UniProtKB/TrEMBL annotation, chain B:
Keywords: ATP-binding, Nucleotide-binding
UniProt keyword Nucleotide-binding present: yes
Protein name, entry field: Heat shock protein 70
GO MF term set: ATP binding; ATP-dependent protein folding chaperone
Source taxon at top rank: Eukaryota
Compositionally biased intervals (Basic and acidic residues): 603-614
Membrane spanning residue stretches: none
Positions of the UniProt region annotated as Disordered: 584-622
Amino acid sequence: MSTFPDYYKLLNISQNASVDDIKTAYKKESLKTHPDRLANATPEQRQAATEKFQAVADAYYVLSDPTRRREYDSLYSTRRPQERTAQPDASASFFATFANMFG
Amino acid sequence: MPTAIGIDLGTTRCCVGIWRNDRVEIIPNEEGNPFTPSYVSFTETEWLIGDAAMRKAARDPSNTVFNVKRLLGRAFSDPGIQADIAHVPYEVFEKDMKPHIRVRYRGNTKEFSPEEVFSLILTKMKEIAQSYLGSIVTSAVITVPAHFNLSQRQTTKDAGTMAGLKVLRVLSETSACAATYRVDRWNARDHNVLIFDLGGGSLSVSLVTAHESGVLDVQANAGDAHLGGEDFDDRLVQHFSAEFKRNHRVDLSGNHRALRRLRIACERAKRTLSSAMKTTVMVDGLYEGIDFETSLTRGSFEDLCDDLFRRTLDPIDSVLRDAKIHKSQVDEVILVGGSTRIPRIGRLVSEFFDGKELNRSMNTDEAVTCGAAIQAAILAGATSEKTQGVLLLDVAPVSLGIETTGGAMTPIIKRHSTVPTKKSQMFTTTSNNQPGVFVQVYEGVHAKAKDNNLVGRFVISGLSPAPRGVPRIEVTFDMDANDRLVVSATDKGSGKSQTISISSDVRGLSRKEMEAMSAEAEGYYREAAERKAAKKSLEAYASSLETAIVELQNALGRATLLMNAGKDISAEVYRHRQQAMEEAAETAMRKLSGSATSQQGERSGRRVSDEKYIRSWQLSPV
């Protein structure tokens, strides 16, 4: 695992954001990145937005649940800032390993 | 902007609508009805769709096709399909492992797939919209039950494409209702909405969180593919057939015309009992001049269907469980679908929620069409203040994964994941020097892969020989908002990768393809083994050459030392040194030629074989 998805950065929130902050940020980012809201965009823009949305949805899944968030936070603190990334592609593989911890 | 319509493609009837001037208009058909029966009748001269076809059902039952939705995108071997076939008067047979329909049309026998029948109905709905709007309709959102899997959704999409429509989305019926709810009743706070949609053929239940921002977050779906108005009609038909048999010693089963007429009378009685407490079921000349007349009370109808009615609560239970929401946290319970007019159903749902008042403000029959039309407008890029900010975050209807060791299903995208979604997982081989991996993609919730629905398969061959558990194969599932799934697998060692796009037709591998792939993989395997052996041999030779050179250099060094030592050296000493050098050279040469013959490539004795061989290329989670 070389890169670590920074779910806080993806949702544009601070590490001590409240549950309501997380919810609001998720809805806000969804409206910006979900391809359904981009009917008049170019295919490339839609593709880029789709990738971003996929990571944003992962971020919400992880941070909206207290247990998952605690687990994520403990991993987060072991990573140096330069290892954390808001690039969407870091989420797909991290997520699978991470989500399996919860069965 | 293209003209985009919303179509509610129901088991028993269809409805079409369009978003215009900030509201949904439901489009009536040529007979002025907002609903068009999902019936197609084939005659000697033409095919009829809708009301005209339904009227033919009693006269020409074997050529009038209905309830096709229950056949869509399913395997012929499906036990549910078999029960459905027993209930319909037209011929259903197996072709390519799927149910097909055989009818007489224009004096010939014609075969249709369920999606072809659907494409006829969709064409009709498109024409209804075009003649009403006076313009060409290019695209549509089509609704399906929330529990429809990927294959069924793809098949629905294919039917739309065949009807000349660009299908913008195959949308869950309950999700469509959520969109209607959002546009109809803006509520500036977060709240949980349970949508209970009981139609003619199926039940769908969804839990959706409506957010003040306009975002609708679908939490969970559940449903029953075989529970709806048709099943209640069936009960009544069975009951009255038995009564007729008792009274007149006449068996109606097999007499499609009589059964059809009895069914129409039963359906009418069912509807009447939604408002009246008692009704009469009457069919003149039901069988050989014998009239049938009997009475039915609401109480006895409820008793006859009691188990079916109670079954409607099961999906509510599972939706709440999946969404991890207690029933007391549900803010609104919305009932839609014609069968929710049955008073007993409403009472059962209300009792389930401890006497909660149900929301019946939405038009029971049109809510789904409205939502489809709203979503169609949004996806086509319409700009309306009322749809501004409305976003439906829908979920994957089933789990998607691959088969791993022991036939297990390892889900990659879990059911109820918000789409679009992309997930990767690392896998490895299960045997030593496994030459490839066989990736089989399934959809479904069962723990055993074979109990789920196979949607695609492919092979990566030419893995470098390695002990089991060592190779790293990354499998990625990428699903877009249109339920289009792209599966790729990459062997991290060799960089070899394969990508497939899952479509409605399982890209099954024929035996020949299997053999070809096996042979190709065997070729790779042999090539890789030879390459490895050759390299090893070269390394060994180079290393022994190096040793020899070092030994010779040492001998040479000693000789040089002796030669430069001066005049006091005897001939004996020179001769002795030369002899030692000759011996060293000889040893070195012998070593070199010997090592060259001992290093032969280890050839694999594995025979090129067939499907069974490829099937052994299993994957296991890391």
